[in-house]
Amino acid sequence: MPPLETFPLLSPAEFKTICHGFVALQQNLLSTSQSLKQQIWSLKEKKLPWGQDSVIYLSLSKLARHWPAGRPSEAESEVEGEGEGEGEAEHDITEDDPESLPPLRRLPNDPILIAVEYNILYSPTFRVPVLWFSQPPQGVVAVEGKLTLGDHPVTGEISWFVHPCQTREAMEVWRGTEVETDTEWGRYLAVWLELVGRAAGLDGRGVGGKE
């Protein structure tokens, strides 16, 4: 396949091509990357009621850990754990007696699993991919030029996204490499996702052939 014509900018057709290539790249890496199995992107196409053309995008659902407010620090947890251990040692509790064992319960400081939906869509304005997601990493606030809120192009709901204003500059360093020339395997998206994914709570492992 020919290289990207205006790298690092993309045309809608080129974005569609590298999306298909990226999905193929994932399938090719599945046999060697166990971590990748937790981050499989699927290709989707949706007809929007206000447009004539269908929208091609990538989607990923992932569980993220969120800690309750007021969670104690690790040092406090260790001290608290030591105290509990000493208290338990004072009691004559045996595993042979079920009635003597304390009931299992969810601790107030245990993390809560929250489902996060990630989407990769094409930006006609910036001509680069944009990463949208339903829930930001804990403690993250909206920052102009980095993470911000906006209307999701497909769902219309208020969602978070990594602002694409710096994508062109970040991807420029890959000019002349296989990221520009190898459109068959969508390596553009693999590298791009490693650059922007961490801001949204994705570690990027496996998608670019790295562990």
Question: How would you describe this structure to a colleague?
Answer:
- The chain has 211 residues and is an alpha+beta fold.
- The protein has a domain at 12-67 and 115-200: Yope Regulator, Chain: A (2-Layer Sandwich).
- The chain has 5 helices and 6 strands, in the order αββαββββααα.
- The chain has helices spanning 12-29, 74-90, 167-172, 178-181, 187-196, and strands at residues 42-47, 54-66, 112-123, 128-133, 147-151, 158-162.
- Strands 1-2-3-4-6-5 form a 6-stranded antiparallel sheet, with helices on one face.
- A hairpin with a 4-residue loop joins β3 and β4.
- α1 crosses α5 (187-196).
- The longest helix is centred in the N-terminal third of the chain and has 18 residues, at 12-29.
- The radius of gyration is 23 Å and the shape is globular.
Task: Give the CATH topology of the domain at 12-67 and 115-200.
Answer: Yope Regulator, Chain: A
- Specify the CATH class of the domain at 12-67 and 115-200: Alpha Beta
Q: How many beta-strand segments?
A: 6
**Main structural class:** alpha+beta
Q: Which series of helices and strands comes N to C?
A: HEEHEEEEHHH
| Mean of residue pLDDT values | 76
Number of helices: 5
Broad shape: globular
Strands in their spatial order, largest beta sheet: 1-2-3-4-6-5
Tell me what the CATH architecture of the domain at 12-67 and 115-200 is: 2-Layer Sandwich
User: What value does the Rg take, in angstroms?
Assistant: 23 Å
Helix content: 25-40%
Spans of at least 5 consecutive residues with low confidence: 72-96
Largest sheet: 6 strands, antiparallel
| End-to-end distance | 27 Å
Beta-sheet strand percentage?
15-25%
Protein name: Ubiquitin-like-conjugating enzyme ATG10
Organism: Pyronema omphalodes (strain CBS 100304) (Pyronema confluens)
Pfam family, one: Autophagy_act_C
GO cellular component, one term: cytosol
